[in-house]
Amino acid sequence: MTVRDRHEDFVAGHPMFPGESNDSSPLLTVRIRFTPNLPVVRLSGELDIASLHLLTDALDSVAAASCPGDLVVLNLAGITFCDVAGLRMIEMCAATLAAADKELILYDAPPQLRKLIKITGVAQHIVHR
Predict the structure, then answer these.
(1) Tell me, what CATH number does 75's domain have?
(2) How many domains does the chain have?
(3) STAS domain location, by residue (predicted)?
């Protein structure tokens, strides 16, 4: 089965505290939607040092997947908090995707995240839409 045949969502979450039951809301939810033309990775919640591994795992799996296109969309509309560690991880994931001949596009970043990118200069070279 190729990515082209898969249209379901993959969802991963990070519990608030280690050892906490899965009944609580995760700090970060990652959804990967494989469409026929490109993968869309949608983040909801807080992107910080405690949840970076979820973004890394998601974009690593997208880079390894056999997708027909060379674009990967990172939908940031649901981000409620992001620190500089989160921005640096986005930058590192973009580099990983570039090594796999794919381009990361940041989509619908909230105003506070766009401001953080502008202030810090981190991830500002990544395409924003």
Answers:
(1) 3.30.750.24
(2) 1
(3) 28-129
Q: What is the pLDDT of residues 47-83, one digit of tens each?
A: 999 999 999 999 888 888 877 788 999 999 999 999 9
Domain enclosing residue 72, as ranges: 3-128
Alpha-carbon gap, residue 31 to 68, rounded angstroms:
19
Residue with tokens 């990544």: 126
CA distance 120 to 118: 6
State the distance between the two ends of the chain, measured CA to CA, in whole angstroms: 31
Calpha distance 44→39 (Å, rounded): 16
Integer CA distances (angstroms), 96 to 60, 61, 126, in order: 7, 11, 13
CB atoms within 10 A of CB 24: 11
Residue-wise pLDDT tens digits, 10-31: 455 544 344 444 445 568 999 9
